[in-house]
Structures are given as structure tokens and as C-alpha cells.
Amino acid sequence: MKFELHINPDFEEAVRADVHSRSDFTERLEQLVMAYNGTDSITAYADGEMKVICFNEVECVTVLDG
């Protein structure tokens, strides 16, 4: 798998994923992209649910490996 980021302020922003088949990852990626509304936010996961939280709502960030 590889990751490419192309920055051009003149282009419309888009996310493209070339995958072998749909999966939990592609579903979550699609949800993340479709939830984007132009504000500064972060995606949070709790009890299997994904939530998009604005940066001004974040008080603490915990990163769990695995």
C-alpha cells in the first residue's frame, strides 16, 4: 500500500482510494471524507462509533497503539 499527497491550491479537494474490494476501512474512509465540512476537526472513535469533533471541543488526546 502507498500514500500520495498532492497539494495544489487551485484544484478541488478530492480523496481517491484504489482498493481491491470494499472493507471496513473503505467504509470508514468514505464516512470520514463525506463528513468533512471545511472546518478544523478530528475524527474520534469511541465504542466502535466514529465521531467528528471540532478542534475547539478537544480537551485531551490519547493515542492507543493497536
Mean of pLDDT: 83
* C-alpha geometry: globular
- The percent of residues in helical segments reads 10-25%
Number of helices: 1
Strand content: 15-25%
Low-confidence stretches: none
Number of strands: 2
Q: Trace the largest sheet across and list its strands.
A: 1-2
How many distinct folded domains? 1
Q: Name the helix and strand elements from N-terminus to C-terminus, one letter apiece.
A: HEE
Going by helix content, strand content and strand pairing, the class is alpha+beta
Tell me what the structure shows.
The mean pLDDT is 83. The protein has one domain (1-66). The protein has one helix at residues 24-35; strands at residues 41-46, 49-54. The protein is α+β, with helices and mostly antiparallel strands and 66 residues long. Helices cover 18% and strands 18% of the residues. A two-stranded antiparallel ribbon has the order 1-2. It is built from one helix and two strands. The radius of gyration is 14 Å and the shape is globular.
Element layout with pairings:
Blueprint: H1 24-35, E1 41-46, E2 49-54
Antiparallel strand pairs: 1-2
Provide tags for this entry.
66 residues, alpha+beta, two-stranded antiparallel sheet, 2 strands, 18% helix, globular
Brief summary of the model shown:
The chain has 66 residues and is an alpha+beta fold.
